[in-house]
Structure to design on (311 residues):
């Protein structure tokens, strides 16, 4: 098959590997620019395309559905478009180009959590399971017929990185299984039940810590967003602070019962700092100012009199 791949992130890399191993011709890889300094090894579609001499396109997202780019895709005589974590809705003129249509991958069990990038929401909601869906693209937002999907169990201390790795592993297995059926035009199609659908669209403000929430809720937010997804954040004396790692605390609660203000720094610990939450304490392990200017967060907190309050 002649395939165009609109792909990103680690699962996008795995899809390209599977297509090449199966002997398909990848006539274009369409992706968005990577920040290689922030990506774990093996996550860069851009790097993989360069290393494997694949034709790479990085148009600005507002030109993806332009007549000029549509004309480029038409001239490629495509059999299939494969999409994965691509941050732009493809117009109907693009969807109608490939002989076998377009398949997409979504990091949820559709029709639950339609919308932009709900990868870490199962952790934030403290769900026990998560899942991934491969489906046929149409002009709606994640509304196409389901081809295949699979769920998996979440560990107690799941992180944004660990759930991303699981989604990649399960998604690659599903894609490899279903690809021969897609090529033969025999892939199953199950319409989504719109009555069961939910929609999610991530906003950066969701990453701000509400210190009045429970320790469990704040811990889940930091685990979900720490490191790979930019971290949860708060403010200290007007400067934005990024939280990448934390642990819930129970053994010291009675010692600091007089600290009643959520967000207040109450003590330094062996690993970091104890901060008051809505119902107890959380131990902050990895913390930094976003602007990286002096004084550092460690210098500020080490010289504090434990009256500082995150907001």
């Amino acid at each position: 098959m002649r395939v165009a791949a609109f792909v990103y992130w680690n699962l996008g890399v795995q899809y390209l590997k599977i297509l090449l191993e199966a002997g398909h011709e990848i006539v274009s890889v369409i992706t968005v620019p990577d920040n290689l300094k922030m990506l774990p090894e093996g996550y860069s579609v851009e790097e993989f395309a360069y290393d494997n001499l694949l034709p790479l396109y990085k148009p600005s997202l507002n030109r993806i559905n332009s007549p000029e780019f549509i004309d480029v895709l038409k001239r490629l005589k495509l059999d299939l478009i494969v999409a994965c974590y691509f941050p732009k809705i493809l117009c109907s003129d693009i969807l109608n180009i490939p002989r076998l249509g377009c398949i997409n991958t979504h990091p949820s069990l559709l029709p639950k959590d339609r919308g932009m990038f709900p990868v870490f929401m199962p952790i934030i909601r403290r769900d026990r399971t998560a899942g991934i869906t491969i489906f046929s693209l149409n002009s709606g937002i994640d509304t196409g017929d389901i081809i295949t999907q699979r769920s998996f169990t979440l560990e107690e201390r799941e992180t944004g990185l660990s759930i991303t790795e699981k989604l990649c592993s399960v998604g690659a297995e599903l894609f490899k299984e279903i690809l021969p059926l897609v090529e033969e035009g025999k892939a199953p199609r199950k319409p989504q039940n719109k009555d069961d659908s939910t929609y999610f669209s991530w906003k950066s403000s969701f990453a701000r810590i509400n210190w009045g929430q429970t320790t469990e809720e704040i811990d889940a937010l930091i685990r979900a967003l720490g490191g790979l997804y930019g971290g949860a954040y708060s403010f200290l004396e007007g400067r934005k602070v990024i939280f990448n790692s934390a642990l819930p605390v129970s053994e010291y609660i009675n010692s600091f019962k007089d600290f009643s203000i959520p967000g207040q720094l109450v003590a330094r610990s062996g690993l970091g700092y104890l901060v008051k939450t809505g119902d107890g304490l959380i131990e902050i392990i990895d913390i930094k100012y976003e602007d990286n200017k002096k004084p550092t967060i460690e210098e500020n907190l080490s010289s504090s009199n434990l009256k500082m309050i995150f907001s």
